[in-house]
Amino acid sequence: MNNIDPEILKQSMKGDEIAFNQIVESFQKPVFNLCFRMLGNSEAAEDAAQETFWRAYQSIKKYNPDRSFATWLLSIAAHYCIDQHRKRKLPVVEIDDYLAEVAPDHNTPNPEAIAIQKEQQTQIQELLDELPDLDRASIVLRYWHECSEEEISEVLGITINAVKSRLHRARKKLAIIWQQQSQHSSHAERMKNGSPAF
Amino acid sequence: MDHQPFEEWIFEQKEITIEENKKLNNHLNECEVCKDLQESWSQVESILVQAPMAAPASGFAQRFATRMETEKVLIQQKQSIKYLLVVGLVLLIITLLLFALLFFTFSTGEMIVGAVTAITSFFHAFINLRAMAYQFFHNASPLAIVFGWLLIAIWGVVLMPLWAFTVWKVSKQGVLQK
């Protein structure tokens, strides 16, 4: 996970806004990504990421420098997103808006590659939306943020055994849903190509 | 058929021994359920591994700085309202206590007499003050009046640019929030 210059952190803890803005610059992408994967909506993710940084700014004096800063920040983001998700059922995936943000910046656009990426991202978000909040957070932290099981347990405030069990359950569920989706799409393909007489 | 150890080997990313790997492969050759699960999971995992990080629209840090300013103003407003409420409440309590003290110390008749006396004294003081002012201007020389007006005009000349400068400064930079 991202590291931070101890001097910037020290200045931020003293209330230096310019130093804190440097933290925002450094961590905007991981925080936004976690919020986006958790909420599945770029507008809600922007609000959640902004709120995360605001909460971090307000409580940075209480931050314990012995802990990883990234873990502390992601913990604020994850808990906020879980709360938001519980409060209201969010509309799922604005994939076109999202792709404008994540699509690689090639000089010559490749419509086929973009279409494939679009499809894959839709599939990923649909899969993630099937998972309970903590399971989804565990998967996002594991695969996008490359967190270890210990780091995930720190971020989510659960035991390492609980993380292991959630990851296992989430992976199995993702595999089953993927399997069902594949069967459904191949069945639909057969129906489309088959003769109406049979 | 017991799938438990094989499911663990498929879904948990811990290293397995050569012996365990052999057992897993044998099981996958026999068990369609576990084989399908393993294939599905490896497809999902490859997509997860390749998935890019979502990034916010450009100017995120700038938007945060703006938001921080707004939030700080809101916090200051809330604090001001809180202090005003506390001061108002304290004043209300003091007033109520004074009224209570007044009602317990004096009779109704004494209070009415006291109120009438206070109002009369007020008007009397006003009349006296007016008479004093009249007497002052009546006796003052015309030069003193001109001098007074001049003093007021000079103050106006000094204060007006200061006021204009303050308005310009505040409208340009905003009020500094600490």
Question: Which characteristics define this entry?
Answer:
heterodimer, A: 198 residues, mainly alpha, Rna Polymerase Sigma Factor, Chain: A, B: 178 residues, 0% strand
Describe this structure in words.
The complex is a heterodimer of chains A (198) and B (178). Chain A has helices spanning 6-13, 17-39, 42-59, 69-87, 95-102, 111-129, 133-143, 149-156, 160-193. Chain A is an all-alpha fold and 198 residues long. Helices cover 75% and strands 0% of the residues of chain A. Chain A is elongated. In chain A, α4 packs across α8 (149-156). Chain A has one domain: RNA polymerase sigma factor, region 2, helix turn helix motif (Rna Polymerase Sigma Factor, Chain: A, Orthogonal Bundle). Chain A is built from nine helices and no strands. Chain B is mainly alpha-helical and 178 residues long. Among the domains of chain B are: 4-50, no CATH class; 106-139; 141-178. Helices cover 84% and strands 0% of the residues of chain B. Chain B is built from six helices and no strands. The two termini of chain B are 69 Å apart. The model of chain B has no long low-confidence stretch (mean pLDDT 87). Chain A binds chain B through residues 17, 21, 24-25, 28-30, 32-33, 36-37, 42, 45-46, 49-50, 53-54, 57, 98, 101-102, 104, 120-121, 123-124, 127, 139, 143-144, 164, 167-168, 171-172, 174-176, 178-179, 182, and chain B through 7-8, 11-12, 36-38, 40-41, 43-45, 47-57, 60-61, 63-65, 67-68, 71.
